[in-house]
Specification:
The protein is of the alpha+beta class. About 5% of the residues have low confidence. β5 and β6 form a beta hairpin. α5 packs across α9. The radius of gyration is 24 Å and the shape is elongated.
């Protein structure tokens, strides 16, 4: 595994690939115009979006390696590590959008950047584009390129950030389309998610480790937490956390019928450190306390 290079600015990234810096906070890289390259690993302090038009070998993300297909968009957030594994130098077809967090500081996009959860998706959850979608994405990148080649003036930042926000909103739309077109795959994820929760509560894991986390479930499904959450929200209208809480309530209702157990014992079995937290959550979801529910039934 090659050494990890730390890239904290747009200029550092441009220097790494042999690209001229037109703007200190944003860059569009055309891989056909840069020097061929092979193995590398980078930890980025900037946002990066890669549009690949050709196979580029194996892409690494964190400690994992994936076969990265053509016609896909990959999103990298600051702090993440990515790279390419190839034995020989090769020139690729595609583009990269690199922008520093300071570019969007104080803008509406800067305040809402966390809403674009796909920046925390894994490489195997990359966005696969249709030909028409690719044309729209390329047009957005071309508009940003035009502004970078234009002399910087008082309108430059506003226009660049506007085009960037438009670009990201299209990406959000295309991801939602992808969730719909993968409906059969999504249903399989849902059924496996339910089984993970069933197995968790039927074992001693809750007593040992507390309530299951979204991250725990996502790792069991080989997905990122954000991707699982977005998939469930699109498919069911509920977040992953809401699903976990509803499953806990469902199991709690069954346990409450066992008169030999106190409410505190049930709370501990479900993974609550403090029984009053269980009582509060149960009452919020069901409309009555566990004791009232037991009496009524």
């Amino acid at each position: 595994m090659s050494e990890v290079v730390s890239i904290n600015t747009v200029t550092e990234y441009n220097n790494q690939v042999g690209m001229e810096t037109l703007h200190p906070l944003v860059s569009i890289v055309d891989f056909e115009k840069v020097e061929p390259f092979c193995n590398f690993r980078m930890q980025l302090g900037v946002y990066a979006v890669f549009l690949k038009e050709s196979k580029c070998g194996n892409m690494t993300y964190g400690c994992n390696t994936y076969d990265y297909e053509e016609g896909t968009l990959l999103f990298i957030a600051p702090g993440q590590v990515y790279g390419v594994v190839n034995q020989e130098k090769k020139r690729y077809i595609g583009k990269a959008l690199i922008f520093h967090p300071d570019l969007i500081l104080g803008t509406a996009l800067g305040k809402n950047i966390k809403d674009y959860t796909f920046f925390s998706y894994q490489v195997n959850e990359a966005l696969h584009l249709s030909a028409r979608e690719r044309a729209i994405i390329t047009d957005c990148l071309d508009k940003i390129s035009y502004e970078l080649e234009h002399a910087i003036d008082t309108h430059s930042k506003t226009l660049i950030v506007s085009y960037l926000e438009l670009f990201l909103n299209y990406c959000k739309r295309f991801y939602e389309r992808q969730f719909v077109t993968r409906s059969n795959v999504n249903k399989d994820v849902l059924s496996r998610f339910e089984k993970i929760l069933d197995d968790y509560f039927s074992s001693d894991k809750a007593i040992e480790s507390g309530l299951p986390s979204v991250r725990y479930c996502a790792e069991k499904l080989y997905l990122s937490s954000n991707y699982l959450g977005d998939l469930l929200k699109k498919e069911t209208g509920k977040s992953a956390q809401e699903h976990i809480q509803l499953k806990m309530i469902e199991v709690a209702k069954e346990k409450i019928f066992d008169q030999s157990k106190s409410i505190s014992e049930i709370a501990y079995e479900l993974g609550f450190k403090y029984p009053q937290h269980f009582t509060r959550m149960f009452k919020k979801e069901v409309g009555m306390s566990p004791l009232e529910y037991r009496s009524m039934n």
